[in-house]
Amino acid sequence: MKPPYGNRPGDDRSGGNRSGDKKPGGAPRRPDQGPYRGGPSQGTPGRGFGGGPRQDARPGQASGKPSDAAPRDGQKARPNGGFQGQTPRSFRPREQESPRPSPDSPKGTVWLYGHHAVAAALSNPARRLRRLMLTEEGEAAIAKQLPPPWAVAPERVERGRLDQLLGRDIAHQGTALLADPLAPPSLQSVLEKPGVIIVLDQVTDPRNVGAIMRSAAAFGAAAVITQDRNAPEETGGLAKAASGALETMPLLRAVNIARTIIALKAANVWCIGLDAGGAPLSGPAFADRRVALVLGAEGEGLRRLTRETCDEIAGLAIKGAVESLNVSAAASVALYELSRR
Fold first, then answer.
1. Radius of gyration of the CA atoms of the chain, in A
2. Which of 145, 163, 179 represents a domain boundary (last residue)?
3. Domain containing 148: what range?
4. Within a domain: 7
5. Confidence band for 292, pLDDT divided at 50, 70 and 90
6. What secondary structure, in 3-state letters, does 176-218 show?
7. Model-level pTM?
8. Are residues 196 and 214 in the same domain?
9. Residue 65 lies in a domain
């Protein structure tokens, strides 16, 4: 049965069902919350952590290109439309996410690499392991973290063999573990666990998702939810960035982010969209509430429907010459702030 749309039964956080007291999309508004920023009535495209215009504007609106949007006073134009100081994506060297299809890489499997990612997977009883390849140095490093015997016998190989298998640009640290992807848990099982729930709206960089999972594990979050289509698959790069958190932090994939937020609200979870235009996030203000933190993609930020479905929009108090943060860094700061409850 789908959760109800609009106000939640028994929810008095909006201060009553008064006319004009709801945001677009039926989400309740707190009495002390200011006017909704970035909504369609203002005609302002939503902004991400960098405060830049959306890149999916309709015809006649700002296209999101630097030439279409005038910079604010004292603000330097960013040539790539992303975060200030960020190297354009097209010029950043990137690791190959997964090896090319071969007899060493059966369909439906993933190569994990890196000391922490491999050791965590070896100690996870829910992970189906297929093949473990280690250099002499890599085996010694894994043995320090997790003394053998392991669930799968290791194969001693030279570093060149792993370079050939994974790619020369991969920082595998002399370790490679072939395994099946983890089965995603249900939303109901996540709601039964305490802690903040993180919802990622089209965050596509696997290293950002992995870094967010690592921070989520560090601050005791309940789970990370990504979109099913516009989000990275489970890869070695994501697992390495998560530094073992992929094995302990539940990762869900939702078909529709807005409907998932509605389901969370129906379960009495207060959904906070993180955006540069919101009032500073305050952890103590949510001491008595279960919270879901919703983050959008770099540059584009939260999509319109996602913003409108959240209970409220909050930002980070950033001082100094840096105007904005990478999405994974912003998630870490927000999780720390919420931990002060």
1. 22
2. 179
3. 110-179
4. no
5. very high
6. EEEECCCCCCCHHHHHCCCCCEEEEECCCCHHHHHHHHHHHHH
7. 0.70
8. yes
9. no
